[in-house]
Specification:
about 270 residues; alpha/beta; Rossmann fold; 2 domains; 5-stranded parallel beta sheet; 5 strands; elongated
């Protein structure tokens, strides 16, 4: 049954509701309310049957905004990496069951921080994969930060120089998932190595990480050297990590070759 209130009263109430929704910062709730008033199917529904869709609309809107905000701050700006686009080939060393497990993000919800190691030669798809996993975590509602290790090393040096190490570490540790790409490729001096290992130590209990490296895990010992922090770091990743070892030819070379063959074939077709 449609409301029998005068149009003037309905208009005044709508304006009041609009103002209250604005003040309470629930715009999606108000938009759902407006849409309901336009739809005959809601005219005779009970109050609770109208309230629930409005609340759900607001929650969905807030979740979408939070994901968009987290994505903007994540350092993952590529639209291309997407787990749904992976081609699984046994020669690549990539198992669908393992990727699916990581994509569900249950490993990020554990009481004890778990980690993921992705290794492989240049061009095998490490960066693409870790960014795709990062995007899956963002969509699941987690805060993520992706950074190449050479950039992290430089930022640690600057933070130490400017006496801002505490603030920088706090910023990184505010993210649920930290992704380090190109690990163990850039030398670190002793001071920077201590800062790096201290940062990792901060995340010991509740800071999952993904680390991608051209070097196999066994060579990380040589890169980090000895010391309590280094031993703790290596022990942590040795015992609490999923491991993906990408193999095969460089995907960049394969893609370039396929493109060349397509162009050659196209050229022959034109000649004919």
């Amino acid at each position: 049954m449609k409301s029998k209130q005068p149009i003037e009263m309905q208009s005044t109430q709508t304006q009041q509701i609009a103002t209250l929704c604005h003040d309470l910062k629930i715009p999606a709730f108000f938009q759902a309310y407006v849409e309901q008033n336009k739809s005959p199917e809601f005219a005779d529904k009970a109050f609770s049957d109208r309230l629930l869709p409005m609340l759900l609309a607001e929650r969905q809107s807030r979740a979408a905004k939070r994901i968009a905000r987290n994505t903007k701050e994540s350092g993952i700006n590529d639209a291309l990496p997407d787990l749904s686009r992976i081609t699984y080939e046994s020669s690549r060393g990539l198992k669908k069951s393992q990727v699916d497990e990581l994509a569900r993000c249950d490993w990020l919800r554990q009481d004890r921080a778990l980690n993921t190691i992705v290794t492989g030669m240049t061009g095998t798809g490490k960066t693409w994969l870790v960014k795709a996993l990062g995007k899956a975590a963002l969509q699941a509602g987690f805060k993520v930060f992706y950074i190449r290790t050479p950039q992290l090393i430089e930022r640690l040096r600057i933070a130490r120089r400017d006496n801002e190490m505490g603030q920088y570490r706090m910023r990184l540790n505010s993210k649920k998932l930290l992704i380090l790409d190109d690990f163990a490729m850039t030398p670190m001096d002793d001071a920077t190595k201590d800062d790096f290992l201290s940062l990792i130590d901060d995340r010991q209990e509740d800071g999952p990480m993904i680390i991608a490296s051209q070097r196999p895990f066994a060579q990380w010992y040589e890169y980090l050297g000895t010391g309590l922090h280094a031993d703790a770091f290596l022990d942590r990743f040795k015992n609490t990590s999923y491991v993906i070892e990408l193999k095969g030819r460089s995907l960049r070379e394969t893609t370039a070759l396929a493109k060349k063959l397509r162009n050659e074939k196209k050229g022959k077709s034109v000649v004919k």
